[in-house]
Amino acid sequence: MSITINIYYTGKNGNAKKFAEEMVLSGIVARVRKEPENEKYEYFFPMDDEETVLLIDKWKNKGALDEHHKSPMMKEIAGLREKYHLHMKVEQFESIDNKHK
Prior knowledge:
38% of the residues lie in helices and 31% in strands. The protein has helices spanning 15-25, 28-34, 62-70, 73-83, and strands at 3-10, 38-44, 52-59, 87-94. Strands 2-3-1-4 form a four-stranded antiparallel sheet. A hairpin with a 7-residue loop joins strand 2 and strand 3. The protein is globular.
């Protein structure tokens, strides 16, 4: 069962977009995407809210997400989030296995 996390990063003066740009330029995004059980790690920009960035983060299972949360990268991400003074709203979704037995 895969887990998808939507994280809305909101700031002021374009800081959410600057955060996403620095995440890419610093190589953090590439490192997350290389984690064995990461299925998606992508930023999106809402058309009607220039101060928010949406991250869609998908993992094969909860264990993979838990391991990611224990990784040293999380401190780097938290540091950037603080640097840009961002607020987060988090939504979590679990896939449903529709296979009939």
